[in-house]
Specification:
alpha+beta, two-stranded antiparallel sheet
Length: 72
């Protein structure tokens, strides 16, 4: 099966640049425990580990990896 070129995308030189800026909506701040979300506060990243909690070295290593990538 052969597909035909899409006329809208076949000529790349005439295409305008795409705006890749992410625009955040204005929201009101809300406290969740001791963390404030919304209202211009930074995005909060939270995760969990899969290691057995009896494996202390593995658990600490997983927590450090999460911290390095920006998890709270």
């Amino acid at each position: 099966m052969q597909t035909l070129p899409n006329p809208a995308t076949s000529n790349v030189t005439n295409r305008q640049s795409t705006d890749t800026t992410i625009h955040r909506r204005q929201t009101r701040p809300v406290k969740v425990g001791n963390v404030t979300i919304g209202g211009g506060y930074p995005v909060v990243v939270q995760s969990m580990i899969n290691e057995d909690t009896l494996d202390i070295d593995g658990s600490v290593a997983a927590i450090r990896r999460l911290h390095e990538i920006g998890c709270e």
